């Protein structure tokens, strides 16, 4: 990957960041430290890339004929989703839970 990074043809700025995941995970440190090391290595170039893209006028500049992307709203959290169940859905959930409870009680005899 390092060779790949170095051999990418000339471009306005370096927008490819190689991170050696294996070498980070081989270290004798806690999982939290490994995660932090990986995040640091992966995100290290972001400030420079952002600065370069701003200086080059790349961000916010529309080129070509790409369709405008309209992002969908985030999903409803599960806790709130349960309260919006229809009566039929709620009945199905209750029946399912009752069936699971009966199944659990009978499990020792199965």
From TrEMBL:
Residues covered by the Copine C-terminal domain: 5-59
GO biological process: protein ubiquitination
InterPro entries: Copine_C (IPR010734), E3_ligase/Copine_domain (IPR052079)
GO molecular function: ubiquitin-protein transferase activity
Cellular component terms (Gene Ontology): nucleus
Protein name: Copine C-terminal domain-containing protein
Organism: Dioscorea zingiberensis
């Amino acid at each position: 990957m390092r060779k790949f990074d170095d051999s990418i043809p000339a471009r306005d700025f370096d927008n490819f960041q190689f991170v050696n995941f294996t070498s980070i995970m081989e270290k004798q440190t806690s999982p939290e430290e490994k995660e932090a090391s990986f995040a640091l290595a992966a995100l290290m170039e972001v400030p420079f890339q952002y600065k370069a893209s701003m200086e080059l006028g790349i961000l916010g500049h529309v080129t070509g004929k790409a369709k405008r992307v309209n992002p969908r709203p985030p999903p409803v959290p599960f806790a709130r989703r349960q309260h919006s169940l229809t009566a039929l859905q709620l009945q199905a959930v209750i029946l399912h839970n009752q069936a699971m409870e009966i199944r659990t009680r009978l499990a020792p005899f199965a």
